Amino acid sequence: xxxxxxxxxxxxxxxxxxxxxxxxxxxxxxxxxxxxxxxxxxxxxxxxxxxxxxxxxxxxxxxxxxxxxxxxxxxxxxxxxxxxxxxxxxxxxxxxxxxxxxxxxxxxxxx
Length: 111
Hints:
This protein is mainly beta. It has one domain (9-107): Jelly Rolls (Sandwich). The protein is 9% helix and 50% strand. It contains one helix and seven strands, in the order βαββββββ. The protein has one helix at 21-30; strands at residues 9-11, 36-40, 45-49, 54-68, 73-78, 82-85, 91-107. Strands 1, 2, 3, 4, 5, 6 and 7 form a seven-stranded antiparallel beta sheet that branches. The longest helix has 10 residues, at 21-30. It is globular.
């Protein structure tokens, strides 16, 4: 029997120094992920959407506000924070006033 997991997880960075882009890439590679870097200028908005895969996102620079309309929640992610969004969960992003660079990957199910 398959169990649907639709809980968004936020993991705050607790280390002393914020991780570099290369350090985040190494963390993601250790999980078997293939990360890519994207950046947006200040105050950019990404429309609410969902994906057919589990999204893993780290904030490398700046900040983003994650919008979760189905649970009426908003949370701000800062440098080093990680967001896990299960497949099918609707979410949107608002980039902070200083812009943002994020590292993202798709977590594909093991078959």
